[in-house]
């Protein structure tokens, strides 16, 4: 038996060019073609792919495999567009040495960004067809492609990509004039092609950056300061330098590290070096127990995410310095303010507008506060990097999400010409945002500088991984709404406070690399910021409910300083925002005596939104049979970044002795589906990770240092705690593909919170939802 | 010691972790470094049949014993039924946790060839997976047990 995946590979032999204008490759004309951003930045076909005489195709992608299966999905797209069997296509890891610069692999944008690759492949196909037609003396429009063989319709004249590979020059501009195949002609996209990287990973073959074997490789370890604000007072490297196998001890300002012949040698040298240091520590972290007040009291930059005018009653009295630590949910008696306006449905309740004209005066006002703590990436592998300085310049190996931005940041920090720096992507463990990958690469750069000609391979410790990687920010959100007497939403106000959600390499003119902040001539880490709203926002991501509400007033307040290093973690602010919105919707529905599902549908007009909500609910058997005490269903929904995937989750939770999520039933709409099993896998993974965040995770710290530094102080979900997950993927062949990696995070948290509230009758508004918090809420 | 059926002797210090010996001296990259403290399962190997964290097992403790790494379960040409089942179920995302999980699962199936889901989850409870691929992995173990009783 040989190791092969069983998912069917489609047969290409029957599939031709579709309606693509195969033979013509028009010269540039005045016709305006709108090119995807990947193409404008990387305009030549040869930047995207190469076709070889041996029957293979190499695809160069600027996207990084982060465990999400992107190499597989890109290979599928290329195979389809070229008309070759998928096994011929090899998607090469991103590198700055060749291939396109596609920035960061983040924000669930990779599949959407792949339109550029599709276009490059369509262009290549057209070029080959033109060449074939000229040689065979047939009309190119009459030719078809089947697994790389180009022939006329009756099959008498034929040649192939492989025969023509040497004479078709792909170093040409992508004009965007060869139309991609119509959806119906795509044989590979839409099928569950097996992951190309899994066989290696299942048989323990070297594939990860930790497994790199570089000739002459040395092992490196960094000795980080004991806490973020610590300064090095003195160090005596001499005894460490004398240890067997130690090649170098590196000190540059407060940056310290060792280079040794073996891993064991480097580990013991690092322990010895740590003992040879004296540091002055300082309390620089905020008080954990009053994060809410700290965030509210911080100097902030406020972004108005949405403002339709008037504020609802309760919110008008809320200020940014309120500092109330206790969650508040206030419900005014119905009718207390209902003195004017119409309450009989004559006020434009068609759910389409309502920003002007008659709006009924609120009968009820409600408000509540929701919070989350800091979250760690907690990748299963510690960050890792390798670097080599030699006569060719500086070569770096990294599991970064963006080799091109990292290259620029390294050149800036190290003070070298960017042209001398090459960064190769090598797979690491799953990445869920801006983790320590870039930092580890720069650690290797600094250590390798001491040993020119020999590559240094750095691996972080688990403790450094948990305490020095950027974290996802703690957040607090106040939400308030006015309801009509019939329960309809009239207005909504929302204020959310957070540290910034991005501090990637190159941000704010700084390298943004950890070690660069510790060197003699430091490049301090700038305060984390937020992506622009047009890019999905950070603190304000998904802060706008998709429900029809006549008046909305939504503001995001981002703290201007960052006492704890924060950056992008899967979904940024959306995790809390969706939790807050969806929890509050349930609270409102309950107060209005309405079913949570029916109430949502009554306020949703987008048919795709309605469909995921409806399908998830039906698949879960909503509203469930309350046969068991302490068991209930809860629902959560969002459209990621307001323009990405629609996702609805129904959680079945058992809250008797502990909180157990038994099952998650999920419906998701990602537009056109490139790889259905890939989408299901991403959604499942996101939902399980969100379950872990929601039930267990919170980074702990004292005033000096982060104290969650191992798997005991930062526990994550275990096998026996993982819920059953059922995913329904809705395919919409005519809608653009959007990413699936982040769609489930927020809705899962909300579904769990709502299910817990339904099961135990009290609401926990602070994440994570632990048994202790449920008990505390019951005692209140 | 015997590693994947072959007698090996190494000249490393007796206190060196078995993980480093396997990865560096013997070139077996299957066992992965995750925490170095016996808490994540990425580095598990079978030591005389028992799933054991190689990161906190000193070399002397493995002396004369039988060590099996994920490479010893099967390879691309003749995969272990578990490896094939994981592939068939596409059970994994980044895959960093897989080596240790396959080792735990192999030990389980030796001990209990027909486990139920609960027993599979319990057998894998020392292994962490951050990508959230656990359900697929449980399905894959059940599938391997069913297809290769
Ligand atoms: S690396 Fe050995 S248990 Fe984590
Ligand atoms: S698949 Fe990534 S940690 Fe398990």
TrEMBL record, chain A:
<dbReference type="Pfam" id="PF20256">
    <property type="entry name" value="MoCoBD_2"/>
</dbReference>
<protein>
    <submittedName>
        <fullName>CO or xanthine dehydrogenase, Mo-binding subunit</fullName>
    </submittedName>
</protein>
<dbReference type="InterPro" id="IPR052516">
    <property type="entry name" value="N-heterocyclic_Hydroxylase"/>
</dbReference>
<dbReference type="InterPro" id="IPR046867">
    <property type="entry name" value="AldOxase/xan_DH_MoCoBD2"/>
</dbReference>
<dbReference type="InterPro" id="IPR012368">
    <property type="entry name" value="OxRdtase_Mopterin-bd_su_IorB"/>
</dbReference>
<dbReference type="InterPro" id="IPR008274">
    <property type="entry name" value="AldOxase/xan_DH_MoCoBD1"/>
</dbReference>
<dbReference type="Pfam" id="PF02738">
    <property type="entry name" value="MoCoBD_1"/>
</dbReference>
<dbReference type="InterPro" id="IPR000674">
    <property type="entry name" value="Ald_Oxase/Xan_DH_a/b"/>
</dbReference>
<dbReference type="GO" id="GO:0016491">
    <property type="term" value="F:oxidoreductase activity"/>
</dbReference>
<feature type="domain" description="Aldehyde oxidase/xanthine dehydrogenase a/b hammerhead">
    <location>
        <begin position="203"/>
        <end position="283"/>
    </location>
</feature>
<feature type="compositionally biased region" description="Low complexity">
    <location>
        <begin position="312"/>
        <end position="346"/>
    </location>
</feature>
<feature type="region of interest" description="Disordered">
    <location>
        <begin position="1"/>
        <end position="37"/>
    </location>
</feature>
<feature type="region of interest" description="Disordered">
    <location>
        <begin position="302"/>
        <end position="361"/>
    </location>
</feature>
<dbReference type="InterPro" id="IPR037165">
    <property type="entry name" value="AldOxase/xan_DH_Mopterin-bd_sf"/>
</dbReference>
From TrEMBL, chain B:
<dbReference type="InterPro" id="IPR001041">
    <property type="entry name" value="2Fe-2S_ferredoxin-type"/>
</dbReference>
<keyword id="KW-0560">Oxidoreductase</keyword>
<keyword id="KW-0411">Iron-sulfur</keyword>
<dbReference type="GO" id="GO:0046872">
    <property type="term" value="F:metal ion binding"/>
</dbReference>
<dbReference type="Pfam" id="PF01799">
    <property type="entry name" value="Fer2_2"/>
</dbReference>
<protein>
    <submittedName>
        <fullName>Nicotinate dehydrogenase subunit A</fullName>
    </submittedName>
</protein>
<dbReference type="InterPro" id="IPR036884">
    <property type="entry name" value="2Fe-2S-bd_dom_sf"/>
</dbReference>
<dbReference type="InterPro" id="IPR012675">
    <property type="entry name" value="Beta-grasp_dom_sf"/>
</dbReference>
<dbReference type="InterPro" id="IPR006058">
    <property type="entry name" value="2Fe2S_fd_BS"/>
</dbReference>
<dbReference type="InterPro" id="IPR036010">
    <property type="entry name" value="2Fe-2S_ferredoxin-like_sf"/>
</dbReference>
<dbReference type="GO" id="GO:0051537">
    <property type="term" value="F:2 iron, 2 sulfur cluster binding"/>
</dbReference>
<keyword id="KW-0408">Iron</keyword>
<keyword id="KW-0479">Metal-binding</keyword>
<dbReference type="GO" id="GO:0016491">
    <property type="term" value="F:oxidoreductase activity"/>
</dbReference>
<keyword id="KW-0001">2Fe-2S</keyword>
<dbReference type="InterPro" id="IPR002888">
    <property type="entry name" value="2Fe-2S-bd"/>
</dbReference>
<dbReference type="Pfam" id="PF00111">
    <property type="entry name" value="Fer2"/>
</dbReference>
<dbReference type="InterPro" id="IPR051452">
    <property type="entry name" value="Diverse_Oxidoreductases"/>
</dbReference>
<feature type="domain" description="2Fe-2S ferredoxin-type">
    <location>
        <begin position="1"/>
        <end position="73"/>
    </location>
</feature>
């Amino acid at each position: 038996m040989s190791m092969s995946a069983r998912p069917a590979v489609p047969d290409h032999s029957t599939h031709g060019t579709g309606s693509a204008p195969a033979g013509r490759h028009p010269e540039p004309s005045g016709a305006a073609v709108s090119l995807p951003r990947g193409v404008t930045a990387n305009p030549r076909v040869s930047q995207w792919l190469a076709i070889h005489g041996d029957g293979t195709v190499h695809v160069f992608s600027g996207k990084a495999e982060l465990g999400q299966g992107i190499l597989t999905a890109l290979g599928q797209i290329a195979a389809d567009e070229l008309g070759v069997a998928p096994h011929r296509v090899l998607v090469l890891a991103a590198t700055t040495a060749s291939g396109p610069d596609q920035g960061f692999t983040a924000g669930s944008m990779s599949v959407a960004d792949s339109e550029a690759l599709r276009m490059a492949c369509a262009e290549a196909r057209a070029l080959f067809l033109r060449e074939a037609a000229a040689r065979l003396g047939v009309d190119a429009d009459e030719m078809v492609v089947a697994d790389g063989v180009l022939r006329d319709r009756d099959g008498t004249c034929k040649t192939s990509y492989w025969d023509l590979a040497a004479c078709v020059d792909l170093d040409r501009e992508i004009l965007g004039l060869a139309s991609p195949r119509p959806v119906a002609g795509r044989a590979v996209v839409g099928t569950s092609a097996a992951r190309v990287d899994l066989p290696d990973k299942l048989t323990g073959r070297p594939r990860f950056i930790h497994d790199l074997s570089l000739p002459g490789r040395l092992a490196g370890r960094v000795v980080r300061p004991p806490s973020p604000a610590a300064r090095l007072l003195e160090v005596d490297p001499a005894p460490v330098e004398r240890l067997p196998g130690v090649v170098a001890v590196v000190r540059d300002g407060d940056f310290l590290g060792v280079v040794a012949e073996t891993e064991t040698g480097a580990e013991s040298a690092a322990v010895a070096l740590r003992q040879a240091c004296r540091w002055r520590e300082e309390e620089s972290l905020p008080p954990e127990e009053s994060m809410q007040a700290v965030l509210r009291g911080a100097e902030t930059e406020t972004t108005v995410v949405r403002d339709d005018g008037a504020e609802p009653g309760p919110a008008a009295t809320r200020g940014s310095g309120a500092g109330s630590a206790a969650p508040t949910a206030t419900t005014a008696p119905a009718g207390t303010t209902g003195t004017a306006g119409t309450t009989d449905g004559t006020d434009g309740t068609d759910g389409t507008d309502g920003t002007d004209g008659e709006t009924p005066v609120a009968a009820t006002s409600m408000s509540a506060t929701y919070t989350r703590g800091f979250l760690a990436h907690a990748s299963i592998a510690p960050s890792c990097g390798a670097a080599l300085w030699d006569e060719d310049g500086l070569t770096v190996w990294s599991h970064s999400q963006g080799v091109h931005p990292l290259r620029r940041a390294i050149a800036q920090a190290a003070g070298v010409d960017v042209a001398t720096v090459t960064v190769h992507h090598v797979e690491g463990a799953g990445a869920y945002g801006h983790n320590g990958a870039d930092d580890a690469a720069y650690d290797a750069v600094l250590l390798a500088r001491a040993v020119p000609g020999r590559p240094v391979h750095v691996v972080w410790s688990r403790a450094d991984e948990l305490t020095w990687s950027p974290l996802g920010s703690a957040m607090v959100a106040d939400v308030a709404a006015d309801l009509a007497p019939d329960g309809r939403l009239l207005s909504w106000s929302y204020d959310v406070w957070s540290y910034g959600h991005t501090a990637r390499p190159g941000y704010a003119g700084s390298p943004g690399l950890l070690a660069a902040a510790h060197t003699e001539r430091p490049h301090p880490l700038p305060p984390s910021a937020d992506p622009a709203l047009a890019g999905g926002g950070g603190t304000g991501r998904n802060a706008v409910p998709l429900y029809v509400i006549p008046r909305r007033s939504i503001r995001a307040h981002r703290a201007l300083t960052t006492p704890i290093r924060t950056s992008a973690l899967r979904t940024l602010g959306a995790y809390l925002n969706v939790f807050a919105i969806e929890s509050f919707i349930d609270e409102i529905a309950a107060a209005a005596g309405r079913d949570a599902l029916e109430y949502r549908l009554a306020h949703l007009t987008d048919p795709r939104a309605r469909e995921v909500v409806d399908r998830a609910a039906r698949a879960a058997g909503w509203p469930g049979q309350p046969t068991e005490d302490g068991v209930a269903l809860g629902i959560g929904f969002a459209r990621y970044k307001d323009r990405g995937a629609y996702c609805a989750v129904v959680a079945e939770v058992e809250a008797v002795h502990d909180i157990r999520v038994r099952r998650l039933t999920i419906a998701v709409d990602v537009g056109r589906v490139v790889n259905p099993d890939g989408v299901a896998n991403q959604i499942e993974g996101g939902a399980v990770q969100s379950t872990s965040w929601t039930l267990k995770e919170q980074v702990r710290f004292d005033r000096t240092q982060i104290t969650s530094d191992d798997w005991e102080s930062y526990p994550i979900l275990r096998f026996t705690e993982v819920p059953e997950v059922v995913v329904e993927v809705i395919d919409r062949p005519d809608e653009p593909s959007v990413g699936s990696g982040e769609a489930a995070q927020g809705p899962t948290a909300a579904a769990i919170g709502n299910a817990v509230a339904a099961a135990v009758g009290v609401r926990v508004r602070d994440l994570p939802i632990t048994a202790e918090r449920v008990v505390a809420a019951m005692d209140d | 010691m015997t590693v994947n059926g072959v007698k090996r002797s190494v000249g490393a210090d007796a206190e060196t972790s078995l993980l480093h010996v396997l990865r560096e001296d013997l070139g077996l990259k299957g066992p992965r470094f995750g925490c170095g403290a016996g808490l994540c399962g990425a580095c598990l190997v079978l030591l005389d049949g028992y799933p054991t964290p190689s990161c906190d097992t000193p070399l002397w403790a493995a002396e004369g014993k039988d060590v099996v790494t994920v490479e010893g379960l099967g390879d691309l040409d003749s995969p272990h039924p578990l490896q094939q089942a994981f592939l068939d179920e596409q059970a994994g995302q980044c895959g960093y946790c897989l080596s240790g999980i396959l080792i735990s699962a192999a030990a389980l199936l030796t001990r209990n060839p027909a486990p139920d889901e609960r027993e599979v989850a319990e057998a894998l409870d020392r292994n962490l997976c951050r990508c959230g691929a656990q359900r697929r992995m449980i399905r894959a173990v059940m599938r391997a047990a069913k297809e290769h009783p």
